[in-house]
Amino acid sequence: MNGDLAIRLRGVVKRYGPITAVNELDLDVPMGTCVGLLGPNGAGKSTTMRLLTAQSIADEGELEVLGFRLPEESKAARAQCGVVPQLDNLDVTLTVEQNLLVFTHLYRIGRADRRDAIERALKMANLVDRRTTRVDKLSGGMRRRLLIARALVHRPRLVLMDEPTVGLDPQVRQQIWALIDALRAEGTTILMSTHYIEEAQRLADTVLIMSHGRAVAAGPPAELVAEHAGREALEVYGPPARLAEVEADAGAAGLRTRRTGTSISILGVDRNGGYSVDGERRPANLEDVFVLLTGEEIA
Amino acid sequence: MAATTAPPRAPRLGRLERPALTGVLVREVVNFSSFWRSSTFSSTVEPTIYLLAFGFGFGSLVSKIGGYDYVEFVGTGTVATAVLFSSAFPAMFGTFVKYQFQRTYDAILAAPVDTEELVTAEALWIATRAGVYGCVPMLVAIAFGLDPSWGMLVVPLIAWTAGFGWACFGIMVAGFAKSFENFNYVVSAVLTPLFLVAGTFFPLSRLPEWAQVLGNVNPLHHCVELVRHAAFGFQGWTDLARVGALVAFGLVMWRIAIHAMEQKLVD
Fold first, then answer.
1. pTM of the model
2. Most buried of A40, A147, A227, B136, CB within 10 angstroms?
3. What ipTM was assigned to the predicted interfaces of this complex?
């Protein structure tokens, strides 16, 4: 057992018939950190999340969560985890408070502490005024906040968040980010899957980029960007023929490029002082890294 | 990257733990508070209609069966019908909806609850409802002339035992089903024949021999007979064997239901 790791995965493989959803995955999540699993749909993020709650059983490899071996000791691990699912699975005919009450029982919070646990979760998710509202009367953002509150009601040591802001409008997404950031600041360990670059970049201490079930790179976002995409990228706009020409020139100069719709991004221009072309300079980002490493667009 | 030392591990948790069962039961009870009216209506009115229709419809043509007034015969028999309607059907449809559409079980299994505990708690709750709802036709029959007896006090227990088995049967069917349409086969080919060959509306002795054999392996028939004997006088070892049959039915269905749901919920 590694005492300073909340999650430790080694060589984990999960197959569904001919499809390998997770392929030789290694993952370390140190206690007190926020780790982001970044990848497009089908990269294996949600399967990894299910493996961590033993709702999927790995075909190969070793899994440890909070020091418990999975799947044998999964139940003990789940007692100390909170899970925010990608898809809403609240009891919609119950009120906000009733939903939390049910989970105080499921998470075995003692009778004397239940009321405080519910109040704390309501406050954290800013749902105090909505405690008696039925879930089917809540907005999408409120329902998402309730899902997070439900996952936190027992003060878990580890929170697993599967695409916590998927499908939410930008304003609500900011609210959820603030909530996750507050958790992170409290020292709660978080493993969060996302296909939003900005989300991973803002919230995660470490990002693991996944593609086709494999981990293709891991590290702090800034380091990943610096290592793979340099400090700056040059965005060049123009007709397809011009872009093809720029792409060829950049390639000849030893620079890496990626197509971004109507433009082409030339990466690592700060490392090559001799190269010059008209375009807009912008900071390199995780999306550049992702596309470079996987050849896929993320969203 | 900041890393802190993990606190000592909690002890490994066991199987069929009371807190896990309680947690699932609490969820059911809290949810039930939001739909108990419709559930109670459908689970009690339908068997009561059977009782009234057969009891007073056929009752005007048939005066006595096996020494009982026909209303008494049907009034005790429809307890099993109420048990079936309030256990197998909600278990089938409710379980399917919860895992397929509401994803409720994903939420529960993310907590320290295993599939075995989830299925057991669901079946316990449905059996408890069946134990209560099963008594309604008997109470209606009492209102229409069935004499109360001390033996009737064990009817909720009989209904609970049979309800547990049928609840597990329903959960098992939901666990194996791929779509709602699959339930049609079960309802038409399994539940309807068992419902009719249970001795509720007519005695099995009037049926062909093969149907009598089928009836005697029908758990619903044992429920019918036990309720009837609870009302009119127990028959010693025979009834004990019937209790054994219901318990065995419940245990077998329970294990198969757990297996079916594990296949469904854990991939």
1. 0.89
2. A147
3. 0.88
